[in-house]
Every structure is written in C-alpha cells, then in structure tokens.
Amino acid sequence: MFELPPLPFEKSALEPHMSERTLSFHYDKHHAGYVKKLNNALEGDKRLDWKLEEVIHDAAKNDDIDVFRNAAQIWNHTFFWNSLSADGGGGASGKLAEAIEKDFGSMDAFREAFADAATGEFGSGWAWLVLDNGKLRAMSTTDAGTPISRGLHPLLCCDVWEHAYYLDYQNDRGKFVETFLDHLVNWEFANANFENQGEGNQIGARTYNENQEAFAKSGKVEGAAEEARKSLDD
Question: Rounded to whole angstroms, how far apart are CA atoms 185 and 81?
Fold first, then answer.
C-alpha cells in the first residue's frame, strides 16, 4: 500500500507566505485523499507493490485514468512540498544558475516565463521548471498532469490548484506565484535535481529527504504525519 509521505517542514514553517491553515487542508485532506483513493483503486492489484513512478507510467500507457490521476497527484504534491522552503526564494546558484542564464537569458526572464506558465494555466494545474532534452523550460500541466509521464525531467514545481492558495490569497493566483518565487521556492532542491539531471524519479527528492531524516525523526513532523494518516479513514 502507498503511504502519505511526511512533510519536510512543520506546517507553520512557511508563514506568513503560506499559512498553517492552508497546509492543514492541503496536506491532511487533499494529499492524503489521493493516497486513500489510490489504495482503494488498486485494492487486490499487484501494482500496490510497485514504485509510485511505475504506477504512473503504467497508468498513462494504458489510459487508466482514475489510477493515473491519484498516483500523479500524490507524486506532484510530494514534489511540490520539496519545492518549498522557509528559507526559499531569490535566485538559483551554481550550474543551475548558469543553465538558466543560458536557456532563458536571465533569472528575470525565467521568473517571467515561470509566472506566465503558472498564471496562464486555465483552471487547475501545475507550473514546472523542467529539463527537456537537456534544455530548461517552464511549462504547465493541467489537473493531474505530470512531466514524468511525458519523458521530461522536473526540477521544481508550483501547485496552482485553487486549494493551494485560496485561503491565503483568494482568487489572486498571480500574487501567490509571485510569493512562491520571492520567498518559497527551494533552489537547493532544484539544484539537487539538476545535478542528477532531473531523473524524473525523485532522486533529488529522496536525497533531500535523507538530509531531512533527523528532523523528521525528531517528532516535529510526526504529529502532522499521524494526523494525515488518521484523515485517510475520514
């Protein structure tokens, strides 16, 4: 069975840019709900023992819409949490900064392209920085769409479903995206994905989570994870 991964930070850690209230609804209800629905959809299915990425690829190939939507949303949300940091924002550094300069022209041009992808997505979806055949680009996906089912390699993402920002920003998606870029985007995570050439299978996320293991085991997020597990039964 699939389990809800713990958040890499406390729910209050991103305030005032993202409220604890937003994270409680988003993580404990939405993310946890996708885990519950996927486990229900795969009850008695051998895919319950597969890696999540394998389930996503299989469901996409076989047009298994219900399984794809829930599996992809679990993956996307986990990637999104790791794309956030209380010490985030600003610009990239090192080789990723050089690649952004090369492929977008400047950090400002990247910000504009990413914001356009995020605000230009009609309805629910995601904004991504991806590697596409070795070149960086900003893109959006609709609903549960995920770059890994398209052979692309994500470096970071921003959730632009309304539940990601409505309690804090109401209908001002643009302000939420601006805040994400100014204060929340986790360039350390993006750099880890870039150095691994964005394998598209969460190598960067797993490396990042290993670095967070001591924090997770400290009990600071254990209560949140337990609450989320209980919500699966709601």
Answer: 10
Backbone conformation region of residue 136, classed left if phi is above 0, alpha if psi is from -120 to 50, else beta: beta
- The span from the CA of 23 to the CA of 14, in Å, is 9
User: What gap in Å lies between CA 111 and CA 178, rounded to an integer?
Assistant: 9
Q: State which CATH number among 3.40.1160.10, 3.55.40.20, 3.40.50.880, 3.40.50.170 fits the domain covering 20-231.
A: 3.55.40.20
**142 φ/ψ angles, rounded to the nearest 5 degrees:** -95, 140
- pLDDT tens-place string over residues 185-216: 999 999 999 988 744 444 444 434 444 444 44
Say how many residues make up the chain.
234
Which amino acid would we find at residue 106?
A: S
Which residue's entry shows tokens 């597990």?
229
Report angle CA 99, 164, 51 to the nearest 5 degrees. 70
pLDDT attached to residue 11: 97
